[in-house]
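Q: Start with the shorter request: fold the first protein.
A: Done. Sequence, then structure:
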Amino acid sequence: MRSLPRDRKEDIFFKAWTCKEAYLKATGEGLSGLEKVEVCLTPGESPWLLSIQGNSCITSGWSVHQLTPAPGYACALVSEGPVGRLRCFSERISRCSSH
């Protein structure tokens, strides 16, 4: 990661962070265990959980899906077991003025 340009480092950092955060939220562990979760981010492939506290057996059976809700934002969905079809919806929310 050190050899990547600065803008790519930031992109990879947030992609890894959101995958780790999604796993920890899915397991109910909270954010205190981010350093325990290892994520593999290979260009052109879906991310996957490499290991939890160095144990790769724990990660089998978990699915990771990287999402881009809007330009400049990162989001991940992690679930135990496979996920069927994912559909994303976009809806503009207009500001309401008070009367």
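Q: Next, the second protein, separately.
A: Sequence, then structure:
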Amino acid sequence: MTMRQANVEMSNKRLIVVLGMHRSGTSALAGSLSILGCGFDRRLVEASKGDNPKGYWEPIDVVDINNRIFSAFHMSYMDYWPLPSGWEDMPSVSQERECARSWLQRMFDEHDVVVMKDPRLCRTLPLWRQALEDMGADAYYLHVFRHPLEVVASLRKRDARIPKSYGLLAWLAHTLEALEHSVLNRSVLVQYRALLDAPTAVLARVERVLGMNWPIHPEKKSSELRTFLDAGLAHHFANSLHCDTPLEAWAIAVYDLLAGHELRTLDASFAYELQAVSQRFAGVHEICLDMARVLDNEKKNAEAQIRYRDALVDELRAQLDSVKSNTNAQIAYRDKLISELEHRLADVECNANEQIAYRDARLEELRREIEKRDRRLQSARAILSSRRALLIRIFRPSGLGEIDDDK
């Protein structure tokens, strides 16, 4: 296939990039696009019952590529400081650009309209745009935004260790960088609350603003969209959250800027206001980065202390296990001796009972023998007495006198 033929073929392909800070409604929008017939990768991050029960709609390959980009610069996807200037052209991520192009090519081979959603794209979009430009493909950018205090409350519900200020800075970094890296005349801002309240109207408006057609018109899927976008998906409301710091006020000012251009063509006036806000945030970035380095060192020291403590705990646990094992062995040996003694005692008791029974039987036998002899003796005495009396009667008449019993 020639380059011209490839470009003609790619002109019929469209990539829909769903952008937005974590916990801002990007999953809700991506899931809605699946109902409208847009193409998704077959391998998606699994839904989480407690965190995102209706699915994340994030391609595993895209998430892996983005995570490797952050790892290449020793960063986490939630860090609010920027990637190094010109990072997308550095050799350390050249392989990831090729992986991105391969994924896009595979998706375009399977679908005409492809959806790519991952909040990390807010930071890594420059590399993906390079891959798209190499292929000659078009992309549209849907920026989902939500009140920053609601986002922070949702983040802290999932992980209470995240400081509010950290969450706000991350929201600003994701939101501003996503807009900075996008093509504004191919972008549209979608407010999460509006999407939940009127999904059909919002998606139809997005279609008109971008001058494109969804595979299936939203009106035909109005009932499914209503069922999927349950208003109960939102658990935090800005009117119940308190704003009490300059950072919060600044984040809300950026939110108001986005809300003022919701579902509209992003013109030069918006670009000017956005540039002013971004420049201000860039200055704060430097201050925050210094603070982050200090906090990172403190974190590393704390982690080292925790590791040392854990090692001591493990050592003590091993010693305790050893003592427990020895004690159990001694108890088992003692129980064995007791069992043997009990068996011996039972044998002795059994033998003693047998001997006593034998003795009692023998005594009874002797008693009966004595009784028998006594009866014989009495019988002999009776005979003797009878014979004596007879002799007396015999000898007295003859004048022999008395018989001397001693003779």
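Q: Describe the second briefly.
A: The beta strands are 14-19, 113-117, 138-145, 187-191. Residues 268-395 form the longest helix (128 residues).
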